[in-house]
What we know:
The chain is an alpha+beta fold.
Amino acid sequence: MQLATWNINSLNVRLPQVLDWLQASPVDVLCLQELKLTDDKFPVDAFTQAGYHAVWAGQKTYNGVAILSRQPGSGMVRNIPGLEDPQQRVLALTVPAPGGDIRVICAYCPNGQAVGTEKYEYKLRWFAAMREWLKGELDLHPRLAVLGDYNVAPADADVHDPAKWEGQVLVSEPERDAFFALIDLGLVDSFRLFEQPEKTFSWWDYRMMGFRRNAGLRIDHVLLSNVLAQDCTACVVDKGPRGNPQPSDHAPVIATLKG
């Protein structure tokens, strides 16, 4: 059983790349972020032809998330319950799995723009609301996976140049505290369950040859409940799509489970 996440930075632009990747890497579940299209523009037929069921929450120009699954899911929730927010950032879906149903949450966490701005404060409020909701989700669904673009590099090992980035958005202490507040609920960063190559990142700036220089950050994560983490056998970043012509600035992250 493989679960993957990928911020594709416009599904209109990168639909062919997503379909090609799914053909080469036929994961069971793929969570997409930054669709940047409205609900009526979602290419559901293309994914159906590729063998996937889809649920999505679209928004014009910005944000938007989707969950693609080999088997149809149930119990979809759109957005964080109780949080008044017009931005489409969260989907939850229960999907069948050999070892028992898995509650999959796809999240596109706010970027924050810059420390001290209104968008930064919104990011911290959003993470607090996410944490409160996930408490209940973990109680209801012991087999829980939260995949997405968190817009947080949890540790200096996840940053190509920690000194250069110190105190900035994506790595600031309050953001990291908010990320680890999710972990403290009973979630595990699946990537760190395994020995990984140094300087493995999931995002590289388009500017200044960021990918070529491997000047990146690891901000895309697959968090697993303790129950699921026991079944996790691998978690990797697939850098291949980042080398495509007109790529997303993110790469897919894939976690493999026993069942």
